[in-house]
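Hi,

Apologies if this is the wrong queue. I'm a grad student, and the batch job for Transcriptional regulator, TetR family from Litchfieldia salsa produced an output file that my downstream script rejects. I'm not sure whether the problem is my script or the file. Here is the sequence I used:
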Amino acid sequence: MNRTKPKYKQIIDAAVIVIAENGYHQSQVSKIAKQAGVADGTIYLYFKNKEDILVSLFQEKLGAFIETIQEEINGKSFAADKLLTLIENHFSQLAADFHLAVVTQLELRQSNKELRHRINDVLKGYLVVVDSIIKSGIESGEFSEELDVRLARQMIFGTIDETVTTWVMNEQRYDLVGLSKQVHHLLISGCGVAQPVK
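Support response: The file is valid. Your script probably expects a header line. Output copied below for reference.
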């Protein structure tokens, strides 16, 4: 199976639309095939089943996002700037594709334990980037050396993730990207070098 083939990406993009509009459970493979403009059987040349499509689209979209983010933060000297870049990119990518935002924030939260496990495996690459930002901030003295990296990662990812989920649930009634600096300020305040107690 060649994941660089146009039909693979065609099916992924079609799946994002169909799942966002119908919900994961109501999105039959035949609907995805129709949206992609391919025969039902073609889907099975690339994916085992609908669950595989969902995990693959997350892998594809998140993988591209991680590459972009990594390139952009490599050009930044300060951890605070790297974190702002991460937040702005996360928000702008999902603000630009509401279907994708619905899928990542609502439809990926499935009760199926095995599916959640596979999605968490894909998410690890993103969390590695967050960890690298936190560690560089501790090393440079921007963040407190007492900061627990795992806890800080949960705080950062959880805040970004919940902000997007709330925006999706509110049907894009406000500017998501416009919240980047406020979210950044809150997170930096939480990670910042502890002030001496007076």
